[in-house]
Write a structure and sequence with these properties.
Tetratricopeptide repeat-like domain-containing protein, transmembrane, transmembrane helix, membrane
Length: 230
């Protein structure tokens, strides 16, 4: 490879990286999801190694171009026009299309698309569970709490990739059903879980305090349910 070709490749990769960073700031979980599933599919390789394949580069560029559309309808049209060749690529495009539909207020269409991903046995578990989780969060006002609880419990089993986020949702259902102490206990367990990221622990602590509980540390995972002073 000549020096000029190498320079062009470096610039191209830098442009892709800058575009991805900008879209991460703009779309949050949507673009983060692309990164997560790409890394999982690659068995932990860096995203740039995944994109080394020419077809993957084309798919990535098409996705980035679609997400840069400010108009929601144009973004949906661009995403739906993408022809992904791999099963994983199709799933990523479906995730993003569902996100665009949800932002447009087309919740039923988004849920149907996500549930289709969740039920696809050819996809890795992580894809399916992310889809199931997101579909449930979009149905907070339409599914009865008991049904949402049952489905989130299935995602909260030990070893499940989204168990901590599912536990957080279960705590919110506890609150919805006026089960204050159950919610505090569940949130305290989240705070004391060694695998829980800092932002999740902080969210749990804030809700505990809002419920009148005291934030505690320790292996018991139980919270003092008396309101804290101050």
């Amino acid at each position: 490879m000549s020096q000029s070709d190498s320079f062009i490749n470096e610039v191209t990769e830098e442009v892709r990286r800058d575009r991805l960073k900008a879209l991460m700031r703009r779309y949050g979980w949507i673009v983060a999801l692309v990164v997560v599933v790409a890394l999982v599919a690659a068995g932990g390789y860096e995203l740039r190694k995944v994109m080394a394949n020419s077809r993957a580069e084309e798919l990535g560029d098409a996705i980035l171009a679609a997400l840069e559309n400010d108009e929601l309808d144009a973004r949906q049209d661009a995403l739906q026009a993408i022809e992904a060749r791999s099963t994983g690529g199709k799933a990523v495009v479906a995730f993003l299309t569902a996100a665009a539909e949800a932002r447009s207020g087309e919740n039923d269409a988004a849920v149907a698309r996500l549930e289709e991903i969740a039920g696809d046995g050819d996809l890795p578990v992580i894809y399916r569970q992310i889809a199931a989780f997101k579909a449930l969060t979009l149905q907070g006002e339409t599914l009865p709490p008991a049904e949402r609880r049952q489905r989130f419990e299935a995602l909260a089993t030990p070893g499940a990739p989204l168990r901590l986020l599912a536990q957080e949702q279960l705590a919110l259902i506890d609150i919805e059903e006026n089960e204050r102490e159950a919610a505090i206990e569940r949130l305290q367990e989240l705070r004391n879980d060694a695998e829980a990221p800092a932002d999740l622990q902080q969210r749990a602590a804030r809700v505990i305090v809002a419920l009148g509980g005291s934030v505690t540390d320790g292996p018991s995972g139980r919270a003092d349910t008396e309101p804290g002073e101050g």
